[in-house]
């Protein structure tokens, strides 16, 4: 026992050595900043390790002196206090030393920053728009766009079924970009501030409504890269991941071509004549991805924050108002103008769906809204 | 400094009023100090309970205990309560108790104002906490309440939040005016500015910071109020405003605010280290200059919280350099503390243990701060758990440890009873271990990519999060022990001498007073040579 008592204080002397051990073991592990795949990300990693080691070395020196003093000059051993309370040259010395170390760190930091900062145009330019709670990607050159939603099921989140490997890091449609190409991102938001982050590219840029930020990357390796929204944006902040698929140029061209033809098909759909069943089917899946976050799958909402749509007067009997709400949103609330980002078909389908689903079919006026109604609404507004 | 005290006048004293009115109407600096400290202690458990909810939800991936909506209310209110309801009032409590005692004054200069500035606070927090029970729920936009999440998209209870922040701001400003007035007008003859105890210096500078930035906070919440209710568009891009303007104004308050929460701590820790090293503080004047330069620099670094909002290159670099500069005075303080211990005669009572842990762990927080200052690296760290680790290292084993250390250090003076040293040491070790289990792994999860303010996370973060949560529970439970120790000390214990600690008579005027001090501190003015 007394032996342990004697040994314990000595153990404290080696405590500072834990710092380099922790730093060294973190260096190679998954629990460090990722080296990433781009030139910028690996120079940031280098910078991170450099400053980390500078801190570790200073820490070891300071803490060693401190713990050694605590041990050497302990009163229980009969230490008598010296009587000095300043030393001009020592104080000047460590102030100057600290300044020099900082200047030494500032130089590479500035270099990396200058290299990373570039807002000139890219070969591919993509407009990224943060929405509550999904990302919208638009390829500026080709005028095609799509939303990217979390694809992890609610059952996994609610612990009803086992979680998959990419729990909360998977989406229905990843962003696709070509390899070895300078891609510029124009980043903005539709509602609140979000932030678009892909650690492996070392790109993190806030998406701010009304303003467009730029960021760029040039990825030398094909693959799938996962990231996240990093600015608190409301209830589903944790549920709007970023997934980027980096592909060879040919695959990228094929992807764009496919998107272009899809967009054309979509336009055709507007003029098609839709049956109630077709609208219901499309509306149901659209509702599940776009509305259920707030109004819930059962239409009961989360009152008073998100109103119920089941038994709602607007949904039951005021189709004109409902079209207007979906097209224009409700000013000053979380209810956005869906009509601005989605096709006439989707809007018509989801309105029809909400008017028929749950108990609304029996209790409401049963009016069916077709894509043509939405087109008419748009024309009226344009006048 | 050395002090000569004339004999106290023990006659003609009236004691405190009896019952509740003693506390409601008190103008006595010690009673008001006690009220502040108890408010802060209570809020520590309220904010702590919220932290327990957060950690329980994060124990495992998936949603178990609470829904994201409530989770966001918990993170927001935890942050607001810990900053405005625990750390700040606790330091004001220390200021009330110690500043008159340390400068040889009978009381604070403006005792009625003092009463008002305290009693505003329970109202402010009553309002804030009550929003949690309203149908729309309380604030859920983070303690930094970025617009437009906190304006256009906020629950309507945001108006109560704004009102509550206004009241807190008024309370802080009144408190600061009082502290500045007291320090400038009521020092004992002979106590020149450069002989003032470091705690008083720390608070003098803090009080100026508060007066400078609290109106800015009031301004920013008023702009929110206008945006929400009166159709202005300060922060609404659709109306020609700018959401980033919010962040600039907020952080112009916010960064000095973080130093408001640490400068008084620097003072407390300096006193404790010199006491238990039995050696005067090393580099007194550089300590003062360091605090002053930290305070001045703190006005030109605010945008280091906003490196990812899209600033011009020159802006990014300016704020990086300015932030790195702050590391110099901060480093000087740490070197001075170590030099004070060097060749001292050191003993390890509980306050000293907390002070030593403060120096070591605050320095770790300073290191991560320096790393965060490096703009390109901050692009990776920002809004991850790495930042959460940084500010908890400077605030928990930083500010909070300094407060706990100060409480153990001065409790015998305040109550006249010694605390139980064995329990104090037990409290220290449990706290020290759990604080590191809780906050150190956060560096790693942050680096590995876990964003902050997430109620749910990807599977690779699971192990560390479980460890963090266990550390947090241990930390939480341990603070109940602290409550027990404090109550036990108030109710009795070995009687404390007026010196309390060996050799303190030369260290400060507070040690020349009885323990506990008389109802009116220093009725006869002491002389400082
Ligand atoms: C060496 C001194 C310090 C430096 C260089 C420093 C630097 C920084 C930087 C750059 C950030 C922003 C990180 C980011 O969001 O990406 C930050 C965040 C923060 N720091 Fe420090 N810091 C220092 C000391 C302190 C102290 C003494 C405190 C308080 C006692 C403090 C409290 C905070 C808080 C609360 C935040 C996070 C605010 C939030 O976003 O919620 N820091 N610090
Ligand atoms: Cu988001
Ligand atoms: Cu700051």
What descriptive keywords fit this protein?
heterodimer, A: alpha+beta, Immunoglobulin-like, Cytochrome Bc1 Complex, Chain D, domain 2, 5-stranded mixed beta sheet, 13 helices, B: 529 residues, mainly alpha, two-stranded antiparallel sheet, disordered N terminus, binds protoporphyrin IX containing FE, binds copper (II) ion
List the helices and strands and how they pair.
The complex is a heterodimer of chains A (383) and B (529).
Chain A: H1 2-14, H2 18-28, H3 39-72, H4 88-116, E1 124-131, E2 134-139, E3 144-148, H5 154-157, E4 175-178, E5 183-189, E6 194-198, E7 203-207, E8 213-217, E9 223-229, E10 242-247, H6 249-271, H7 276-290, H8 292-295, H9 313-317, H10 319-328, H11 344-356, H12 360-363, H13 371-382
Parallel strand pairs in A: 1-5, 4-10
Antiparallel strand pairs in A: 1-2, 2-3, 5-8, 6-7, 6-9, 9-10
Helix pairs in contact in A: 1-3, 2-3, 3-4, 7-11, 11-13
Chain B: E1 3-4, H1 20-24, H2 29-57, H3 68-103, H4 111-130, H5 158-185, H6 198-229, H7 243-260, H8 263-277, H9 284-297, H10 313-341, H11 350-373, H12 375-381, H13 385-415, H14 421-447, H15 462-491, E2 527-528
Antiparallel strand pairs in B: 1-2
The site of one copper (II) ion has 7 residues of chain A, from loops.
Give structural notes.
The complex is a heterodimer of chains A (383) and B (529). Chain A has helices at 2-14, 18-28, 39-72, 88-116, 154-157, 249-271, 276-290, 292-295, 313-317, 319-328, 344-356, 360-363, 371-382; strands at residues 124-131, 134-139, 144-148, 175-178, 183-189, 194-198, 203-207, 213-217, 223-229, 242-247. With 383 residues, chain A is α+β, with helices and mostly antiparallel strands. Chain A has three domains: 2-116, no CATH class; 124-266, Immunoglobulin-like (Sandwich), CATH 2.60.40; 272-381, Cytochrome c-like domain (Cytochrome Bc1 Complex, Chain D, domain 2, Orthogonal Bundle), CATH 1.10.760.10. In chain A, strands 3-2-1-5-8 form a five-stranded mixed β-sheet. In chain A, strand 1 and strand 2 form a beta hairpin. In chain A, helix 7 (276-290) crosses helix 11 (344-356) and helix 11 crosses helix 13. The radius of gyration of chain A is 29 Å and the shape is elongated. Chain B is an all-alpha fold and 529 residues long. Chain B has 15 helices and two strands. In chain B, strands 1-2 form a two-stranded antiparallel ribbon. In chain B, helix 6 (198-229) packs antiparallel against helix 8 (263-277), helix 8 (263-277) packs across helix 11 and helix 14 (421-447) packs antiparallel against helix 15. Chain B starts with a strand and ends with a strand. In chain B, 61% of the residues are buried. The interface between A and B is large, with 98 and 95 residues. Bound molecules: protoporphyrin IX containing FE (HEM) and copper (II) ion (CU) (2 copies). Residues 130, 133, 194, 229, 233, 237, 240 of chain A line the site of one copper (II) ion (CU).
